[in-house]
Amino acid sequence: MRSQRGRINGVLITFSLSTLRDVIARVFEPPASPPKERLMALVRARDEGFQVGIVFIPILPHVSDGELEETVRIAKDCGVDYVHVAPLTLDVGVREKYFKGY
What we know:
Elements: E1 12-17, H1 22-28, H2 35-47, E2 51-59, H3 68-77, E3 82-87, H4 92-100
Parallel strand pairs: 1-2, 2-3
């Protein structure tokens, strides 16, 4: 059933991103599609009438934390209905290992 805006009611399609940069995504999400391909799929789903959005999760300290504004702008340009953002959360032992590399 479609809403008055022409959207398919009751269906949300959410795409996750942790970075916009393909080279970084290959390191942190090796089996996932590159970010640009996910954004193209998002636009196709939106054009088909689905409600679409992105989750920019996790924001990676010292890696993708500087991409927040650009990611939200690109999401808006793609016509998303929502954006959810959350930082990386790490247990104490893992946190030390993560930041030791910097």
